[in-house]
Predict the structure.
Amino acid sequence: MNITSKFVLRDRKNQDKTQSVQLRVILDRKSFYINTIVRVEDRFWDSKSGCVKQSYSNNSALNAQLNEYQTKLNTFVAKSMMDKLPVNAENIKFLFAPVIEKPKAGIKRKSWGKKNIL
């Protein structure tokens, strides 16, 4: 098993001219992408090192968020190898999947037309 990862900018630009940062994971010569919450303009992105440039005012906070993604991936891979569990794309994607919470008790539903929504 061979695994590498690197942060890259998504090609598509948002309306505010920022681009989403994605974690590209290459596992056994097959790549897949994990979305992050970090968005940055192309001019503030260092593609060679895969981080936000020093010239951006909030670079340390954004790079810290990116480091959390990298640490989470590295910890998962290390624990899986120690426990002799499979490391595959599905498990890694599940690790980074957003958590969907159920509505709390006491929240009333609003009615919009014929459909009930929260």
Notes: Residues 59-82 form the longest helix (24 residues). The chain has one domain: 3-89. Strands lie at 3-13, 19-27, 30-40, 45-46, 51-52, 110-112, 115-117.
